[in-house]
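re: ur msg from earlier - yeah i can do the iron/sulfur cluster complex, just paste it... oh wait u already did. ok heres what im feeding in:
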Amino acid sequence: MTDPDKDFRDTIPTVDAAGKRIWMYPRKPPTGKRASPDAPNYYTLRTWLSWVLLVILVTGPFIKIGGNPLLMMNIVERKFSIFGIMFWPQDFYLFALAMITGFMMIVFFTAAWGRIWCGWLCPQTVLMEMVFRKIEYLIEGDARDQKALNKQEWTQDKIIKKCIKHGVFFLLSFGVANLLLGYVIGGDALIDLITDSPTEHAKGFFALLLFTGLFYGIFARFREQACTFVCPYGRFQSVLIDENSLVVAYDYVRGEKRARKVKGETWEERLSIGKGDCVDCDLCVAVCPTGIDIRNGTQMECVNCTNCIDACNSVMHKVGRDPGLIRYASMDQIEKKTSKLRLTPRLKTYGIIMTALFLLLSGLLIARKSVTMDLLRVRGTYYQVMPDGQITNFYEGRFLNKTGREMDGSLELLNAEGQMLYSDQHLYMHPQEEAESIIVITLPRDQLTGTETKLKLGLVVDGKRINTTTTTFLAPGGGS
Ligand code: SF4
Ligand code: SF4
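and the outut:
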């Protein structure tokens, strides 16, 4: 026999006692006339936002800021771009700091607003709930029709519906795989891959098919399990949120004791005998894509999709009660019946750390040079004494152009009078490439401070000195 207190929620709703998957059939959340007119309909708002996000997602690999991709994570070539700022292997400390700052932002926003990212912005939720799920509703109907279709024999109608649905899912997964690749290799490389014959990019094409299969598996079969089992974020929330975090929550003070509405019973009668506003209709459970009952409190599987808020608001409207039995609220607000959100010491600490990291990162990014320069002595060379007595040193210059634009630069000696010779006196630097040049520096003896003279050089582009470096100039000793 099971003890409901002891055994409560030691299983997840999508897996049965034998470990077998229980397929979820979430009902369409109420919108339009089915929705409550007394409260904002979050599903509609999320639909609008998802359109904006999908446009950004699709155009993202092709959007450039200052000639660099908006977002690029090229692990193979170790090139990363975030909001058009290119990170090279030399900038790894900045990339690491950006990641730590991002992590701190997640910690802060989760502590304050729960899993708002999951419900409103996460590509998995946006694609699953706003694209794939909607296509499924369109082809197979709402939850009840889907259940009936899956139970019925393989009729012509079922075969046609299943073929259309999975065909569309596969094509969309192919599109998503292309986009992912675009974020890895960049939009230009993706266009080359698409327009050239697959035989010219056999490896890329194979990777594309592999990811298509992966995405198809996720959106057609794996679904909510990706959030429950794979994504670590759901697990973090148990340590990040507390009674002051704003989450999708059931107002148990107002809702309990839940009970079905008895015909003819007035609200006054109902409340006088201890019944609450929850009419135990289970609509909040029926619309939940992860199959949980939010009335049991915040749970790991809850992605804060707000479907249960819309569903409950529509029920409250029908039974003549105020909306918000399920709403964005903290436990503190529910218990104290207040709308005030507490700025706790924990939240303040997270906010201060996040702001400090953000300012540090911004400062370092502003101070970061758009071109790095390194001057190394040509291996095996020391100095050369010219017939007129002047001394010459040979250097190998490396100039890394981190920007997305062509640059034509020149070098200047900053602390000595001398001659410099290098590639036609021009340094051509292609976008996001390293340019190399042999640099020959000749100095008269009166410019030397000894056998080793510290030289300071500047790199000038468009009449502006954009970087400086130092090097050592060797000369013979003893006046030889
Ligand atoms: S409990 Fe509500 S907000 Fe959470 S996943 Fe289910 S429907 Fe979405
Ligand atoms: S939808 Fe609202 S009224 Fe219905 S069971 Fe859920 S909380 Fe109760």
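cool cool. Residues 250, 255, 258, 278-284, 295, 311-312, 315, 325-326 surround iron/sulfur cluster (ligand 2) (CB under 6 Å). ping me if u need the other ligands too
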